[in-house]
Amino acid sequence: MTVQSTAGPSKVEATALMIALLAALMAIGQFATNVYLPSLPAIRDEFLSNDTMAQLTLTTYLIGFAVMQLVYGPISDRYGRRPLLIYGIAVFMLGSAVCVLAPSMQMLIAGRITQAVGAAASLVVARAVVRDSFDGDQLQRVMALVSVFFALVPGLSPFIGGIVEQYAGWRWIFVLTGGAGVIVLVWMYRKIPETLHTPLPRLDMASVFAGYGMILRSAHFRRYAFANAFIFAAMFAFFGGSPKLYIDVLGVTPTEFGFYPPLASIGFVIGGITVSRLTGKVSSVGICKLGLVVLIAGPVISVVLPLLDIVHKHGFNLAVIIFVTGLGIFLPTAMATALQAFPERAGSASAMLGFLQMAGAAAGSALVGLYQEQEPVLTYPLVMLAATLMAAAVFMLEGRERATPT
Description:
By secondary structure, the chain is an all-alpha fold. The protein has one domain: Up-down Bundle (Growth Hormone, Chain: A), CATH 1.20.1250.20. It contains 14 helices and two strands, in the order ββαααααααααααααα. Strands 1-2 form a two-stranded antiparallel sheet. The longest helix is centred in the middle third of the chain and has 32 residues. The N terminus is likely disordered.
């Protein structure tokens, strides 16, 4: 595995430390998304607000995260990866500071949007660096490895957030996100070279729209990217709906709630190992189909159990572990395969992929926010089930349109 350096024709060996740094750059936005989830009820109560307003701190973050990726992708293809990384992490740190000092729910939402504006650059550019540096089966394996680390962060962050919430309060959670930004910025500045070697010749609105149009016209890209978007809708339905279900309905403490996402992350590790074993032996289409079957099984369990009057935290935990195992199989394979066809526009393809993912995430979170007040138990399981079924439908229908490379 190699990462190219602009310092000369020689290549810098891609060590485990470099892969960990790329994973950290991709995951810092996810960390900020999930680490404060155990605090949603406390934030609601401190500002004398309601569940819908508290949910907006997540939904607006996801919308900002989605839209800004479309902006950053072409910029990184024209002007390079490093300058945009530095800018993005600095803005993320500013947003964290606004959240720490927020005197109202409206100001907290503004801080969250600022965080998202910065985090979007980090995710888009880090993914483009991976695409710049690897190809073929190697790209798929590295993306699978990075995605395992990437998934551990949203799994572990609610556990960390739950402890901080219980013993220090929710504002210290945003102190933590700002500190993480400082560490990643220093690490990135010292270790990430410029990996863009063939910049786009120009950057204007016409070329940007033409680039995105070319990407979206690819049935190969649509098959993996749109299915990915529905899977993110399912995942963030869980992230958005689980705090109310676990803390308000099932009566678990924020610290206990934070323990369950790390438990579910075991599934992603299992999925990632499965991908590593199957890559080169089974086509990407076959791996994705396996992942979709496992993904659907999780929400089916979380819907069926309450209908049988079994409403217990470990029933929901089992369903989520199964869902996350499918996620570990499907997500890295779909991401790598979607980007495979666009080596010359890695930033733009990464941006469109990320936009669709976060747009799906925002839709899943918003649907839960709209209906969970009336139906606290079944809302997020039903949204998850509908989204995973849509992902499977899109994947199969787009596959009929046109044969895809494996």
